[in-house]
Amino acid sequence: MTIQAPEYVRRIAPYQAGKPISELAREYGLDEAKIVKLASNENPLGMPASARAAMMAAIDDLGRYPDSNGFDLKAALSRRYDVPADWITLGNGSNDTLELAAHALVQPGQSVIYAQFSFAVYALATQEVGARAIVVPARDHGHDLDAMAAAIAPDTRLIFIANPNNPTGTFLPASAIEAFLAKVPASVVVVLDEAYNEYLRPEDRFDSSAWVKQYPNLLVSRTFSKAYGLAGLRVGFGLAQPELTDLLNRVRQPFNVNSMAQAAAIAALDDAPFLQRSYEINRQGLERLQGAFRQMGLPFVPSYGNFVLVKVGNAAAVYEKLLRAGIIVRPVAGYGLPEWLRVSVGLPEENEAFLKALPAALAG
Ligand SMILES: Cc1ncc(COP(=O)(O)O)c(C=O)c1O
User: Fold this and answer.
1) How far apart are CA 100 and CA 238, in angstroms?
2) DSSP for 63-102?
3) Is the CB of 38 under 6 A from ligand 1?
4) Strand ranges, E, within the chain
5) How far is the CA of 4 from the centre of ligand 1 (A)?
6) Atom 2 (ligand 1) nearest CA
7) pLDDT tens sequence across 116-165
8) pLDDT tens for each residue of 331-355
9) Which of 269, 110, 125 is CA-nearest to residue 191?
10) Strand 340-344 relative to strand 330-331: parallel, antiparallel, unpaired?
């Protein structure tokens, strides 16, 4: 090996993305149009028409760099979340925001806390800055906040919490998060990752921007990739007080969110009917999938997101048989869950196609 790289970089296991439709079609000789992909927690409605129109209007300006400060998008977010614009960090997807936190705040050797079975990018962000991961065992597939608070070490700089969590779909109520935030020392930054927030039922929702006003060490992370239907554009954002926001922006690439993404996000943010449709189709799909799993006697983790974690036994074999039937779901052995599959909620006909193929995939 002649190229010198830090050992902590060499140890990183590459992120396993959901299999693309075109790749499955090529590998198995299937018709792309008939393939159902329920593997990446995408919005089955696709992108909102309002965002498409905004992008068409923005296309003529692509010869120029994007607005590095995202003035218009931040203004729209500022109105929506009732925080000043200098409390907002734009990310190339919320993935980017999560990494900005690790890059801005953590030195090699310091520690970062996250839960077992929580989103894979927390481990990546920790490893790529050479930090030490403190992985706190899950409770009922979700975060054990008491154990996470107890795990804080003198060198802990960051704690990642996903609510709802991916890949398990578990949820922490507002009271649990409030109690946790009150316990965390001011020197430790908490990243509250709410990528699936818009899928919560009204009775489960809470105003996390109010916590941002209370806690200078809190970063709330959101995305346009899920309920807003813009996963391919890569746009997310963080809300935090100015001192923390300023640090994140020091390590942010100046043009990390492209012009089309900024224009589309502004339109999507205002598209309440699309958001409502996304929410409804997801609730119906969740009920359908979970009801079917219950009937089939398959254990599952009740989900608050746009996907369900279901226990199928030999998940690698079931995954493979589903692929042959043209259905892509997500194996989660990499998360330490080799008997489970994660299935994203699709359109009604996509959910039915999956449920139709499942019994044969489970047999023998
Ligand atoms: C919990 C969680 N956070 C963040 C993300 C990142 O999404 P994006 O980078 O598309 O905003 C995901 C994507 O699956 C996720 O599940």
Assistant:
1) 10
2) TS---TT-HHHHHHHHHHHT--GGGEEEESSHHHHHHHHH
3) no
4) 36-37, 88-91, 111-115, 132-136, 156-162, 189-193, 218-223, 236-239, 300-301, 307-311, 327-328, 330-331, 340-344
5) 31
6) 195
7) 999 999 999 999 999 999 999 999 999 999 999 999 999 999 999 999 99
8) 999 999 999 999 999 999 999 999 9
9) 125
10) antiparallel
